[in-house]
Fold each of these.
Amino acid sequence: MRVAVDLLTFPFISGRHALDFVGTVGKRGSADIERLQTADDLARWSEEAGLGRSIADDADLEAARRLREALYSLVLSTLGDDPARPVDVAVVNEFASVETAAPSLGLRSGTIYRKDSAAPASAVLAVVARDGIDLLTGPDAALIRDCEDPTCTLLFVDTSRSHRRRWCSMNRCGARAKMRTLRST
Ligand SMILES: [Zn+2]
């Protein structure tokens, strides 16, 4: 199946690294769009997520997907009635226990800059796993929502003042819903 290019664009709409990472699979349960198709995709996600450059290989890609699905399953357990599974808890803990990369300053002719050396993918996944732990056990857990579009499965933290955000984003699903309403009236 050919997937349009824009469907493979990583969404960063959730407000949390952990949920953005879960969103690297689109339209779960229907089209199942896998946006982490190669190790390079994983490295690109890390950079676009603002987590710095990283080096990823095929084993990292497989590991990343394992962490992602564990996070997804745990988030679902907070949204629905299914109890959280010990296996998913163990996976997230395993990834979170890895050391993260320390940021460092460089100095050139009296001017400081941020040294941007590429981190191993495992360090990036550790940041994502730790964010997942903070998310699932912090105040944001109660604000996790599922986009109301019937085929979109993106998750986000509803930080809107009224707590009535319905769509992953107005550009994606909000606009489509508006069009549907206009057409049906
Ligand atoms: Zn959506």
Note: Residues 147, 149, 152, 154, 167-168, 172-173 surround zinc ion (CB under 6 Å).
Amino acid sequence: MTIEFDAAVLRAPGEPLTVERVSLPSTPPPGEVLVRLGASGLCHSDLHALVGEWEVPSPMILGHEGAGTVERVGEGVTTLKEGDHVVLSWTPSCRRCRHCVGGRPVLCDMVSRHSANHLSFDGRSRVTSADGGDVYSFAGLGTFGQYALVPESAAIAVRRDAPFPQAALVGCAVTTGVGAAVNTAKVRPSDTVLVLGCGGVGLNAIQGARLVGARRIIAADVSDDKLEQARHFGATHVINNRGEDLAERISQLTDGRGVEVAIEAIGLPRTIEAAYAVLARGGTAVVAGQVADGVQISIDPFVMSDQELSLIGSNYGSSTPDSDFPLLIDHYLDGRIDLDSLVTRVIDLKDINEGFDQLKAGIGIRSVITY
Ligand SMILES: NC(=O)c1ccc[n+]([C@@H]2O[C@H](COP(=O)([O-])OP(=O)(O)OC[C@H]3O[C@@H](n4cnc5c(N)ncnc54)[C@H](O)[C@@H]3O)[C@@H](O)[C@H]2O)c1
Ligand SMILES: [Zn+2]
Ligand SMILES: [Zn+2]
């Protein structure tokens, strides 16, 4: 028995997604669950794949920021049952490898072996196109379709009173941004934090820094609209780095010291270098933005040793999805972080290409598909 549904499929990079009929088995294999999606956000990482900045296999259902309901569970599944509300994780973990056991499940061996190749844990795809061919699912999820078959550890149960559009964003932008500040940078109340890029990820880095009580939060972007949003999410100072000199403004704002933490949430070499260049002695630059394939950066290693600077990467906000997803939903429902204002547009699957046009043009924060 199979389930048929519409999904937005990447047929060729650089071309619009095609909404087409696809199918998957209605009975989950052992260790997997069938999820009926309630909502999916449009993230810039999907856009990297869509425009060909990342080389990905095709045909592929894009989308990796989703929430929904468990429809059926496969043999051996113990942590989920039918009817559970779940947020999907694009780093399903084996819970056994040295990274999982060591508390860094986003680095799980299974992720690099399978999810990163857009396949299930057994190295195969689950979805079939109308012509009978295999269809990849982005990060092993493929949330731009109403159904997904995912490993048990890719579906994290959360409380039922969070609306799906907001919960979906916990599946990428919120966890990535808040986590970059809280988990990766470990922002302290004495820190001045710069967040470079105020889109879905950057605004969450701002509210992550606010959550842990950072002394000052400086937001930089090239769009005044985004900077207005940044103030709403907790920025104490804003810089439009198209018109203003970033390094000079940071120097003014910090009496020449620089910032203790700089989080890059764009994915461009010059802004990663700029984040590193404005660090105070002993400071940390976090690379949360993801660059196009093949991009390199240049830094001065003498300054790095002399001033004990750190440049560190942040994958999925260095999170532990099992505990961080429910925690972030609690923070939201108790009013400590704002997820409502992130959802600037709710759209139908058929309007997905228009949603990506808006993301490209920097209009709004997140467009979210509801099913
Ligand atoms: N590390 C991770 O685990 C992870 C997870 C999700 C997304 N990402 C990456 O994070 C990046 C941001 O994703 P998003 O969904 O927030 O994107 P977005 O398009 O919503 O936001 C990008 C922001 O950067 C701003 N910007 C663009 N060029 C700029 C410049 N030169 N100077 C200052 N600001 C500039 C834009 O105006 C926009 O506000 C992407 O590269 C995405 O792939 C990383
Ligand atoms: Zn994402
Ligand atoms: Zn593992």
Note: The mean pLDDT is 97.
